[in-house]
Automatic annotation (TrEMBL):
It comes from Solanum tuberosum (Potato). The chain crosses the membrane at residues 200-218, 230-251. Pfam families: DUF568 (PF04526). The lineage of its organism: Eukaryota, Viridiplantae, Streptophyta, Embryophyta, Tracheophyta. Residues 4-129 form the DOMON domain. This is Dopamine beta-monooxygenase. It is found in: Membrane.
Length: 294
């Protein structure tokens, strides 16, 4: 199951570079219109711009199912009309059907992949939408702006069936295992550098994550007058708490490292106890050691 409730099945005839695809999704029944799209991007990344797409269109009350090819360009992202156009894929057996038993709309097609499409690194993109323009010219309107609408792409290895997400996840786990496996001991001279690396990477990821969320709010066109102040307020509170804990941690570290606990009032009783212990070892009798005669 992919994002947006879209399911994709592919079968590759590697000798002929022929790819059979079946893409299905449940378009919202409460909506009179809708569309389902799937395509390949020959560029270096799996993204919308540059995708050579096959799109099926559901018209009012499913009176007529339409289909066509679309070349998604940068003008589409700017809000220009998205109309049918030729693509650089050799398509055959292209159909858009409705399976009433499953309530699924399905795209079926056979594609002969040009040599510029890498079988071990194929960028696929899928999407669903609701609004369409005039039925006669098969114009499509912008898809939704939910989080899942911006996570509808994948780089897949057709020979193994593994997507980019699986490989990234596995490599991340391997890096974590190696990081802890070769963790220096407490007295190792490289321990300091490992800690520095750990802190720098951790702080950098926190900063990047905060910026990324802010960009996400902007991409999803949420109301900046409410979302931005609320988000910045939460981040500021967390940053203040983090700063307090960080100061306390560094203060404790410096005191432990250089013996500055004399600056801490809590340590004065400990020093008095140590002096008392030292006096006993010297043979001097403390007032508390004097026997009490009843």
């Amino acid at each position: 199951m992919e994002s947006n409730g879209v399911e994709v099945a592919m079968y590759l005839h590697e000798n002929t570079r022929k790819l059979d695809i079946m893409v299905g999704a449940k378009l919202k029944e409460e909506e009179e219109t809708g569309w389902l799209a799937w395509g390949l991007n020959p560029g270096p990344e799996a993204r919308m711009i540059g995708t050579q797409a096959l799109i099926g269109i559901k018209t009012k009350n499913d009176e007529k199912l339409l289909k066509d090819t679309y070349n998604i360009t940068s003008y589409t992202k700017l809000g220009c009309q998205l109309l049918p156009s030729p693509i650089d894929l050799n398509i055959s057996n292209f159909n858009f059907i409705y399976v009433s038993k499953l309530k699924y709309h399905v795209i079926l097609a056979t594609i002969i992949l040009p040599m510029k499409y890498d079988l071990s690194r194929l960028n696929q993109v899928w999407q669903v939408g609701i609004n369409i323009g005039a039925v006669g010219n098969k114009e499509l309107k912008m898809h939704g702006k939910g989080l899942m609408n911006y996570d509808s792409s994948e780089t897949i290895n057709l020979r193994t069936g593994k997507g980019r997400g699986n490989r990234v996840h596995e490599s991340s786990k391997i890096r974590q295992m190696l990081f802890f496996k070769f963790k220096p001991g407490d007295r190792d001279e490289f321990r300091m550098y490992r800690n520095m690396f750990h802190h720098v990477v951790g702080y950098s990821l926190l900063i990047v994550s905060c910026i990324n969320i802010l960009k996400g709010i902007q991409i999803m066109h949420l109301d900046y007058t409410y979302w931005k102040p609320a988000y910045l307020g939460i981040v500021s509170c967390l940053a203040f708490i983090f700063l307090v804990f960080e100061i306390v941690s560094w203060f404790k570290f410096v005191c432990d490292k250089f013996g500055f606990w004399i600056l801490c009032a809590k340590c004065i009783p400990n020093e008095e106890a140590n002096e008392k212990k030292g006096s006993r070892e010297d043979g001097r009798v403390q007032p508390s050691d004097t026997p009490i005669n009843n």
